[in-house]
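Q: Got a minute? One more chain.
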Amino acid sequence: MTRALLPSLVLFLAVSACRPSGRTSHAAGVGWKLDLPGERLQGGKVVTEPGGREEILLPALAQATRTWAQACAQTDAGKDQLVKLTLGLSPNGAVSKADPAGTSGLAKCLAQAAQRQLVPVTLPGDTVAHVQLAFAAAPAPANEPPN
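A: Always. Here it is, folded:
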């Protein structure tokens, strides 16, 4: 297996493992957890309006948020954070709007990154997705050895 495919396989397995096995309350949302070395994004959860579309979005949204997080990796890097976004999605999965909850630099950066990305899914109609993402603080840079 090539190195390029390994991160995708790890992400797929992580998302697949997080799918609920039975029917769950949509008010609580559906979540995913990532354990990818060197990345700040730890996972997230999604609640949709209308309800019941969370599981359709889960794999594509987990991949898309990882891309958005990489684009914003250096924004507010010194602290753990929960970031909330509201995404308007068209039936073909295109992000029509991305609004951050709050004014943190990371929330604003993620909302901008989300507007440039498409979620490759087919939805039964327009959908609003409330997404909460968990970020760990970036590790402090190692001290340079003395010359």
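A: Helices lie at 5-18, 54-71, 105-115.
Q: Perfect, thanks.
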